[in-house]
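Encode chain A's predicted structure.
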Amino acid sequence: MTARALLDQASARGVSLYRLGNRLRWRAPAPPPADLLEQLRAHKRDLLALIPERPLEGDPAFSDIDAYLVASRILGESVWFTADDATAERLERALAAEGDHRLVFTVAEVLALEGMLAADMQRLAEIKRWFRGARIDGVTRVESRPQ
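Encoded structure for chain A:
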């Protein structure tokens, strides 16, 4: 079956397909039959080529949520960024309703993580200086300079 024919079959069964990044998503009044889902998975690459990226602005579920979807090289997947906790909570609820469980971060959370990571990296550099490259197994915490 071609990807175009599969799109038509899904539509005939009441299933709307859309994409978010490299993820194929669907909406339907009831869960689609297992055989249809299996075919969608098998033809995902071809389907993604046919379906344009769905802009969040056009979706009523996301119309009043100010958020950005960003591909994270560190996490290996896309994550959402919002300005505040209330927006993050609303976005998480809307995404959960879609079956999308990607991470959502606020700007404050990202800045806090950045600060913690910087402090950890500074501490690691300190420890490396103390041990001058010696291998240390089983050490979980170093409180002060070794004697």
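Residues 107-131 form the longest helix (25 residues).
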